[in-house]
Amino acid sequence: TWTPGAFVDLTVSELKEKIGDKKVVLGLSGGVDSTVAAVLLNKAIGKNLYCIFVNNGLLRKNEFESVLDQYKHMGLNVKGVDASARFLDALKDLVDPEAKRKAIGNTFIEVFDDEAHEIQDVTFLAQGTIYPDVIESVSVNGPSVTIKSHHNVGGLPDFMKLKVVEPLRMLFKDEVRRVGAELGIDKELLGRHPFPGPGLAIRILGDVTEERVRILQEVDHIFIQGLRDWMLYDKVWQAGVILLPIQSVGVMGDERTYEQVVALRAVESTDGMTADWVDLPHEFLQKISNTIINRVKGVNRVVYDISSKPPATIEWE
Ligand code: XMP
């Protein structure tokens, strides 16, 4: 029978054997899979694992700083790279969802390639690929985990010519979480909802600007923190907020406002392939809606998405 302890022991010795004293580069995304892969490799080869954590400026509020801190506390050899401006620049004036994904994917590859070049004599590229990624080749993880070749235009970036190491490729998500727990990774990190690689860019319908990212980060933070405070976070498979490209009329004091609308989304799912909207307590929705409208300047209306997948998707783009 499969146990996380036996998996860790076997995998660590296999990694030691395979890698020896060579260097490995790995992109951390802040998600469960890349984190577990990194901690396993760290156990096997220590400082010869070079982790790169890229801030694309499209993460949740404060996420880059707090997750980078956590990585350092875990003893990982990690470099945080703030490339927010570069991503925003690449997204300028883009509206089409696939064009946004492509711009983000390409920028990530450029940034990662630059960083990988800084490390001398790297032999391996490690990825947090898990079994569903292998069979579907559609990943619910960040682009830092599964990099698809169609993202790049001018030939293969150098880091993609490296030998690939994928210690989790035979595991399902729940097994990855159990391995993570075995390795002593923080429970909260292991229980995190999935988050798309293109991040908030595909939750801002229309073009992505610094101001819109900031507004969405604020609203998203209130919603996610609210789910945690109400002990609802773990009952939901994924949750987030979508910033709509429309304004609606409201009233504040004796003034009319004409501001943005946000949609809250929370779903239950096992693999993201199908999903049902979650019937969150009305009292909770009422409180969250009030808090958002009172605290976040520029938003005067909150709606709740009651569509299931199919035919709707989880994300709006
Ligand atoms: P949809 O919207 O297709 O999403 O129902 C299913 C799951 O996939 C995530 N998702 C993505 N993840 N890059 C990713 O890494 C993407 O471009 C992407 N698009 C959707 C989504 O958050 C959900 O978990």
UniProtKB/TrEMBL annotation:
Per UniProt, the keywords (alphabetical) are: ATP-binding, Glutamine amidotransferase, GMP biosynthesis, Ligase, Nucleotide-binding, Purine biosynthesis
Asked whether the keyword ATP-binding is assigned, the reply is yes
* Catalysed conversion reaction: XMP + L-glutamine + ATP + H2O = GMP + L-glutamate + AMP + diphosphate + 2 H(+)
EC code(s) of this entry: 6.3.5.2
Ranges for the GMPS ATP-PPase domain? 2-192
Top EC class, one word: ligase
What does the record give under GO molecular function? ATP binding; GMP synthase activity
Could you identify this protein by its name? Answer: GMP synthase [glutamine-hydrolyzing]
The source organism is: Christiangramia fulva
Q: What stretch of the complete protein does the chain hold?
A: 193 to 509 of 509
